[in-house]
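ok so for the tutorial part 2 we go from a plain amino acid sequence to predicted structure tokens. step 1 is just haveing the sequence, like this:
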Amino acid sequence: MSENEMDNRGSKSVILNNIAVKEQRVDGGLHGISIPCIRYTLKGFERNYQVRILSNSINNQRIFYRTISTYQPEPNRERFINPLWLTGFIDGEGCFHTSIYKNNNKIGWAVKIEFEIRLHVKDKVLLEEIQNYFQVGNIFINSRQGVSFRIQSPKDLAKIIDLLDLYPLRTQKLSDYILFKEVFNLILNKQHLTLSGLHKIVAIKASMNLGLSESLQAAFPDVIPRIRPLANNPSIIDPEWLTGFAAAEGCFFVHIFKSPTHKLKEGVQLEFNLTQHNRDELLMKSLIEFFNCGNLQRSKNACMYRVTNIPDIAEKIMPLFEKYPIYGAKSKDFADFYKVLEMVKLKKHLTKEGLEQIRIIKAGMNTGRSEMST
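step 2 — the prediction. this is what the tokens look like for a chain of 374 residues:
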């Protein structure tokens, strides 16, 4: 039976300029405002189980006038998953599925629950590390470019529950998790095998993700959707969580734009951003306070935290990712971003040779990076 038949779906949101992204994304979907790019994921991070607050020394550290081209990713470094990092990553990439489909059992219906992280195939190694962390679940190749990590057994799903109860989600995805946990508990108590329990699960599913399919609405017309709990945990309390969240949702862009005021008639702009559904506007606003820079851009269904000021990027954004390094496919984009930042600092972008070098670097970033180069 296919996932469509089982009504196993994630939700999708429209963001700025009518670009659609899944709230629980798949296959490293396209993202970007003026220039779309695949939001690759990080691989690896430092172990640190102590909850920490980003120190003022990081926020106040001034690195703009030092050489930064020496930054290099550390592909051979031993990596350990920090649970706060993983929670941040799940906030961006995790998906909680509840599937209800016809069956030949006594009540005529069956229920299946599943936790999934679906990424671009470039980050298969990251999924293997997450699988190793939980010691459960399976990895599936979905397509030529897609790979997913799935946990389906209720016994194994208990490990996800244990993690997220101890290290709570901070986006509105927390609401879906709370509802998912209710279904999980109903299944543990075998209530999904009764009609009354099934109706409870249908009511819960009606408030999750995209809600009920047309076929389920027709089969359960009298079900009243469960009141969706509101997530009220927007404060960013730990940089490890933020690094994991940025691994899932962050983008490093280099823009080259037409500019009649420049000698070369073209200018260079650097940008770091994070985009979420507008339900998480409070969380996105907290990024401004956390980094003490940036601004929020809003559309009908989404809000974006965006930093383009060069000193802010160099002095406030980069130190976080230096202290909590980025690995894997996105580490290469991050390293290229650093190279361009130094060139801009040295005003090389104002020369024909420098601008051409930046153009070449930009062409190899994000969607321009070949799979073989990872």
